[in-house]
Amino acid sequence: MSREQQAVARARKAFETGRSKPLEHRIRQLKSLQRLFSERQKEILDAIKKDLNKSEVGTQLYETVGLEGEINTAIRNLKKWAAPRPVGKNLLTLSDTVYIKPEPLGVVLIIGAWNYPWAVTIQPLIGAIAAGNAAVVKPSEVCVHTAKVMEDLLPVYIDKELYPVVTGGVSETQELLRQRFDHIFYTGNSMVGKLIMEAAAKNLTPVTLELGGKSPCYIDKNCDISLACRRVAWGKYTNCGQTCIAPDYILCEPSIQDRVIEEVKKSIKDFYTDNPKTCPDYGRIINQRHHKRIMAMLDGSTVAVGGDNDESDCYIAPTVLRDVKPEAKVMQEEIFGPLLPVVSVSGLDEAIKFINKREKPLALYVFTSDDKVIQRMVDETSSGGLLANDCLVHYSVNSLPFGGVGNSGMGCYHGKFTFDQLSHLRSCLIKKLNMEGANSMRYPPHTAKKLGWVRFFLLKNLDLAWMGRLALLAALAVVAAVVLQKYLL
């Protein structure tokens, strides 16, 4: 039996004991996970520094603070999330108990990504624990040092049988995918996402795919261009552009292209100094393979800002490309790096057409002072999320579902959405063995009269809440009558 098979088998056996289900256990595990981030912060920060050259403050800002908030939200709301959820009734079930009961799915496989290795790996784990599942955690092998820290630390803080960590590369992931799971949660690119889905289909395993794509950013000429470009530059060059919801390219009218480029250039200098290579807040490309991939995208495009690079240091400067054609190499796939193409469009109508001709993105950004422009983007496009007049920050709102649509993914998570995504929402209807007369309409022999009664009980649009209030008033009237009669006699 392989190491991967053993990990899954242990997790399955541990889940079958039922110990992951009590709310007390779930909260205890979440609190232990919370302690990990406070007690072992140095190991976490050092590893990410080695993998992505992220600063200590940057790592906390974009990785661990959000996870601590997610854990707090789960602990605070778990009792409510896990409780039976009453639902509306029809006339046929008026006297029955009808509700939805969230229950654990079983053993979940979580395959993390390397760009935010803690955030996108541990956030689904928080939901898996909260929902009462076991989970096999597979961190990305690309972040070598972070994967090792996860492998070493997670078993110290949380149940190592229920939540094992499996490290390794492609072969180890493939071996995991040959095992049977109750849900697979994958964060990464669409090409691998298709392979995940294909493997999951053999066991009819449901999947959550958090993918990516080319997230467009439309800048309207009637807005504060300086402020818009400052926010775009922050969203684009954070983590060296290696963010699944980074603005991938700018759409704007030709009349403001030069101004947009100049303002982005100013913001780059403000954020990362005249020499981003020496700036502690500017990261590195994850490895030389990705460095070569990104640099190859420059073919056929004109560099307006930046462009310098150092392959030995995995460094690419914050770069802006001007007059980019739709057929340019940089426009054919998600960039996932610090290149920002500017594509000219005649206005909002052409921008919407441009966006709709391509795959549905994970995020769509629009900068404008005109609410009608925002509303048209909302009404006439489709994307995983839409954000007006800022970048990235919708990810931090755990009351919003985060996920893609079409080629950018399926399923969603964050807060209660992760809990629901990794739960089976079980339909429950509890009847009593009485009132059999009401059931006669459904039993053979079937007649037109019985059908008429069924249509009345199932299709009649009655306000059951109003009927409930009416019944309460009637009961109060009876009580009042009894009381009055007692005192009047």
Share of helix, binned = 40-55%
| Beta-strand content estimate | 15-25%
Radius of gyration: 28 Å
Major beta-sheet overview? 7 strands, mixed
The number of helical segments is: 16
How far is the first residue's CA from the last residue's CA?
86 Å
Mean pLDDT: 93
Please tally the β strands and state the result.
17
Strand order of the largest sheet: 9-12-13-8-7-14-15
Shape: globular
Oligomer state of the chains in this structure: single chain
Structural class: alpha/beta
Uncertain parts:
none
Structural features, described:
By secondary structure, the protein is of the alpha/beta class. It contains 16 helices and 17 strands. It is 44% helix and 15% strand. Helix 9 links the parallel strand 7 and strand 8. Helix 9 (225-237) crosses helix 10. The termini are far apart.
Q: Keyphrases for this structure?
A:
single chain; 489 residues; alpha/beta; 7-stranded mixed β-sheet; 5-stranded mixed β-sheet; 16 helices; 17 strands; globular
Helices and strands in order, then pairings?
Layout lengths: L2 H14 L6 H17 L1 H12 L3 H27 L2 E2 L10 E8 L2 E5 L7 H12 L3 E5 L5 H14 L12 H8 L5 E5 L2 H12 L5 E4 L5 E4 L5 H13 L11 E4 L4 H16 L15 H9 L5 E4 L3 E2 L4 E2 L2 E4 L16 E6 L3 H9 L6 E5 L3 H10 L4 E4 L20 E2 L5 H6 L1 E8 L17 H12 L4 H25 L1
Parallel strand pairs: 3-4, 3-5, 5-6, 7-8, 7-14, 8-13, 12-13, 14-15
Antiparallel strand pairs: 1-2, 2-17, 6-16, 9-12, 10-11
Helix pairs in contact: 2-4, 3-6, 4-5, 9-10
Question: How would you sum up this structure in a few lines?
Answer:
By secondary structure, this protein is of the alpha/beta class. It is built from 16 helices and 17 strands.
